Amino acid sequence: IETQSELRKALERDEFVLYYQAQMDLSTKKVVGFEALIRWQHPTKGLIYPNDFISIAEETGLIIPIGQWVLKTACTQLKQWSEDYPGINMAVNLSARQFKDKDLVKLVCDVIHETGINPNNLELEITETIALDDIEYTISTIKELRMIGVSFSLDDFGTGYSSMNYLKRLPVSNLKIDKSFLDTVMEDSCDQKIIQTIITLARNLNLYVIAEGVESFDQESFLKESQCNKAQGYLYSKPVPKELAISFLEKQG
Ligand code: G
Ligand code: G
Ligand code: MN
Ligand code: NA
Fold this sequence. Notes:
This protein is an alpha/beta fold. It has helices at residues 4-12, 54-60, 63-84, 96-100, 104-115, 128-133, 135-147, 164-169, 179-183, 189-204, 217-225, 242-252, and strands spanning 16-25, 30-42, 46-48, 89-93, 122-127, 151-157, 174-177, 208-212, 230-232.
């Protein structure tokens, strides 16, 4: 676990990096987007993962400048990749404090303007828990960003407490089925039913569904048969540095 002053230094010294994990369209088996995932390239300790510093960043408020850096870096990368692959999407995670920040809408607008991305290719991920904390605020913030073309995904779906009543009111575009359901799906028929139910629910609410943590072809076949739209997981790629990520796009032409 890292300290506040170390995190501040990391920002000043530009030690954060983004890794990118491919998101596949299950019907075409092509990469249709990437999720940006932060890492800290520490000069002596090596690569540090977000679970070891995001909560401290959140508690200390440093998540605000770190989050600005993430959004700007991910959108700069998106702009570059979309020159050759115009439909490609970029998903960026938002923590609770970032989502509640009064300047979020302005930040996103500024970054879109500065980088020149197509806002339709930007997806912001929030968890159910964040979304439901103050539902009226959530709805109005998502609507404001939707108006300029940015879409939202509900991350870790199925692990929080969203009731159907809340879900139908949230103007999100995608549900991300939590990895925990995938982990045991091939042994546990209950998990299969849960996943199929989430997919049906999503379709009825006009939402896209993406499954996270896909590691085997069996899981992929099950998801395809269940008409899940997209998949993300080690089967396709781990989160990788930008040079490797682009090679996936180049390979598929
Ligand atoms: O990449 P990894 O699986 O180690 O990520 C662990 C957690 O850190 C995930 O819950 C992910 O959402 C979160 N995370 C990764 N990158 C970012 C980021 O840029 N911003 C925020 N707020 N959370 C992130
Ligand atoms: O909470 P969020 O969904 O943003 O976090 C995604 C995290 O899940 C990333 O840290 C990523 O490294 C991890 N991840 C992505 N795909 C897989 C997978 O197929 N298997 C495992 N074990 N972890 C994965
Ligand atoms: Mn995520
Ligand atoms: Na997730």
